[in-house]
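Subject: Interface between my chains keeps coming out wrong

I've been trying for a while to get a sensible model of this assembly. When I model each chain on its own everything looks fine, but I need the whole thing in one frame so I can look at the contacts. Pasting all components below, labels as-is. Any help appreciated, I'm running out of ideas.
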Amino acid sequence: MNTVFALWKRGLKAFVRNKTALIFSILIPFFFIYVFGAIFKSDLIANPVAYMLSGVVIVTVFESALTLASSTVDDMVGGFMKEVLVSPAKRVAVAAGQILTATTVSTAQGMLILVIGMFLELSLLHG
Amino acid sequence: MNSIIVVKNFTKKYGNFAAVNDISFEVEEGTIFAFLGPNGAGKSTTINTLCTIFEKTSGTLLIDGKDVSTQKSEVRSTIGVVFQDPTLDNKMTIDENLKMHCVFYNIPKKEVEERIQFVLKLVDLLKERKKMVGALSGGMKRRVEIARGLIHYPKVLFLDEPTTGLDPQTRAQIWEYIIKLQKERNITIFLTTHYMEEAEICDQIAIMDGGVIVAYDAPYALKKQYTKDKAYITTEKEQELEQLLEQYKLEYVKKDGYYRVDAEDINGLLQVLSLQKDVISDIEIKKGTFNDVFLEITGKKIREEA
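Reply #2:
Try treating it as a single job with all components included. I did that and got this:
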């Protein structure tokens, strides 16, 4: 259990420390909403954000989960995985730790977009 | 003395190719054991199997009485490993790397701080503990890895080429740590190296080539068995010298400008030469080195395949 928690903490720390990736992963979904919102705007659909939001949330969650999961590959290339493999840590716990990190980050991102998106939609409706 | 590592008839095959072919050796507790051999000899395969990363094809491998393939978890907590390539997490600080390691090895929380201080003091990195690993130099990274390998107080420490690619100062330093460790904590050290002068410090040496152990003894014994002292003589009276050498049945090789005499007994050679001192204009005697032992045993050809 300690291993899972420690790896989870490590994953989150690494994510937060990588400032460029952090900023882009937050900005890109809004860029999507803005660009596609402008493209799809027509006489029939005054506010496309309502239709797009679910899609953007799913894309974001998928994308960040995939990126974080592939950090396991980075660990293998970087050698860190070897250190994990010669330690008595349980393999299941190692996998669980990595999965938990990806889950946490992508869930948080999905929620963030969902919440902000709802605000956008609301302001548009009233405007 | 009891053997802490026992390897019996160990074979590892990749398809039909036997990377390691039926080797056996033992390492006594508290000694430094060096594993030498050209690239592709099967050293890393053996180390990786002992470290529970690879599965053996057949044979028995025991560390501290525990079987490497059936009691993996027990073996893993007994050993510390420093690999050839760095295995640190570059995105974390030294401190975080060591703490992570403590979690993996189930070290009680209240001991963690004390142990980190102990190992970092050993490798002189106590001041740098908050630094990011990615920003450290190669030598410092190595030291961090050695510190990390020791934090769970292993009985056996595996070092796969611990000093490759480091400057002479750092190499000397790392050797200091290794010897200190062996003396103070009675840790058994199992290492591979390419530097022959380093191998001489060890208690036992096994030389591997082509998947088998070709020599296995203490360094001085190997040196005695495989090297000859060499004398390089320059002379102006070539005929007289040749006569003298032939008279006493000393074999020589004539090269441009000098004669090379391989002698098992350098004193005898000097006595012979002192009979006609005026023949010799210059003489240089070279003692056999461990490099010679290595080349003598494994051959001089560089292998094409790794």
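Reply #3:
Confirming on my end. Chain B touches chain A through 26 residues (CB under 8 Å).
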